[in-house]
Amino acid sequence: MPAADEGVADADADASAGQTGRPATAGRRRVSRRTLLAGGGLAALAGGGTVTAAALRSDGRATASAVIPFHGPHQAGILTPRQQHVRLAAFDLGNRTDRGRAAALLLRWTSAAEHLTRGEAVPAELEPPGSRAAETGALDGSAPARLTVTFGLGPTFFDRTGLTAARPATLAPLPSFPEDQLDPARSDGDLLVQIGADDAFVTAHVLRTLQRLAHGEAKLRWAMTGFTAADGRRNLMGQIDGTNNPEPARALLNGPDVPPWLEGGSYVVIRRIRMLLDHWDTLPPTHREQVLGRRAADGAPLTGGTERTPVDLAAARPDGVPVIAANAHIRLAAPASNHGATMVRRSWSFHDGLRADGTPDAGLLFMAWQSDPRTGFIPVQQRLSRGDALARYLVHETSALFAVPGGTRPGGYVAQALLEG
Ligand code: HEM
Question: How many whole angstroms separate alpha carbon 318 and alpha carbon 323?
Answer without folding.
Answer: 10
